Amino acid sequence: MAAAAVKAYKRRVPIGDRVFDIFNIVFMICLMIVTIYPFINMLAVSLNDASDSVKGGIYFWPRVLSFDSYQYVFKESTVLHATGISILRTVLGTIISTFCSAMVAYAISRPEFVLRRFVTLAFILTMYFNGGLIPNFLLIRELHLMNSFWVYIIPGILGVFNIIVIRSFIEGLPDGIMESARIDGAGEFTTFLRIVLPLTLPVLATTSLFTAVFHWNSWFDVFLYNSSHVELSTLQYELMKMLQNSNASVSGTDASGAFASSGSSSANFVTPTSIRSTMTIVASLPIIMVYPFLQRYFVKGLTLGGVKG
């Protein structure tokens, strides 16, 4: 029966279309391999014995299985604490930023708001121009946000790109839905909470993923504002310091670049390359675990949100 279906397909589809389908499948397979291979290679290097990895030849799987690099990364208690700070920052920052951005997007999407074009233009200008590093630092200091957890949340509470995407999505909603809510006596905030938010779930999931990735990967603000407070350090900042220390530790050693991960005589060895690969896996794994749950909203939200300008 399968052979009959193949013959029917060949008779129905022109040869040019079949060639295009084959080329498209081969191209997508090659693109998938090129995209996934670096991550697989880093995973293999992170799980391979560091001294053996110096020889090269690690591609898809570890040659000598070892968890020394992971033990080195997580041997400090500060890493676990920093992981908790990163999770708290990502969760709170994403929820607050998404909700506030959605409220602003709803406001500037309403035609009765006479200043919506001016406000939108003012927001867009901030995407191209800013005060610079020193004025931002002085502003944070004057707001008394230095050496506090809220310096991670408040400066990024509004994302202009997210506002524009959400606004475009809201403008594509039927006006009759919100008019019906007003006829029933709902105010603007009630309409936003009970009507707009549930309908904009796809675009909110998309912008939430963008915001979560930003908060999870951010480390420079920790360096600027909270570097002297270990209890406020994030995972990315601790991993960055660890990589710098590993590079400094091998500056005076042999060409292999291997150094002991403990002070005992049977100490295991790690290298900057193995640490870098381990750090990449540790930093990427949470986002990779979250993405499948948002995948069904991601393309839909980004596509529908970009229909209108």
UniProtKB/TrEMBL annotation:
Keywords: Cell membrane, Membrane, Transmembrane, Transmembrane helix, Transport. The chain crosses the membrane at residues 20-40, 87-106, 118-137, 149-170, 191-216, 275-294. The keyword Transmembrane helix applies. Gene3D superfamilies: MetI-like. GO terms for cellular component: plasma membrane. One of its GO terms (biological process) is transmembrane transport. Its main location: membrane. It is a multi-pass membrane protein. The keyword Membrane applies. Coiled coil: none annotated. InterPro entries: MetI-like, MetI-like_sf. Signal peptide: none annotated. Residues 83-291 form the ABC transmembrane type-1 domain. It is found in: Cell membrane. PANTHER family: ABC TRANSPORTER PERMEASE PROTEIN MG189-RELATED-RELATED, POLYGALACTURONAN_RHAMNOGALACTURONAN TRANSPORT SYSTEM PERMEASE PROTEIN YTCP. Belongs to the binding-protein-dependent transport system permease family. This is Binding-protein-dependent transport systems inner membrane component.
